[in-house]
Design goal:
- It is built from four helices and four strands, in the order αβαββαβα.
- The protein has a four-stranded mixed sheet with strand order 1-2-3-4.
- The two termini are about 20 Å apart.
- The protein is an alpha+beta fold and about 90 residues long.
């Protein structure tokens, strides 16, 4: 069985909950992506999307309010991850 953990791309930068919107947008620009994953205590919590972040006026605030929550663990079958990607219209 192929799991989500086995197909995660290590080249995609990971944000942590204490990142600001400004920092997240800079990383997205540097890596030419529209969204990035967020980990809290090493656990995947979801993605932040560039469009959502740009809609927030104070770029010094933290990214957590803009987080799109996912319900997936590293041990989940990759079809579960694909389903979540489709539901959230994820590009990464």
């Amino acid at each position: 069985m192929i799991t989500a953990k086995q197909i995660i791309d290590p080249q995609i930068p990971i944000l942590e909950e204490d990142f600001t919107i400004e920092q997240a947008l800079r990383w997205m620009d540097e890596n030419r992506v529209n969204e990035l994953p967020v980990l809290v205590n090493g656990e995947f919590k979801g993605l932040v999307n560039e469009t959502q972040l740009l809609d927030i006026e104070d770029q010094a605030t933290f990214i957590m309010p803009a987080l799109s929550h996912w319900n997936i663990s590293p041990e989940d079958h990759f079809f579960t991850m694909i389903h979540q990607m489709s539901e959230h219209q994820s590009s990464i």
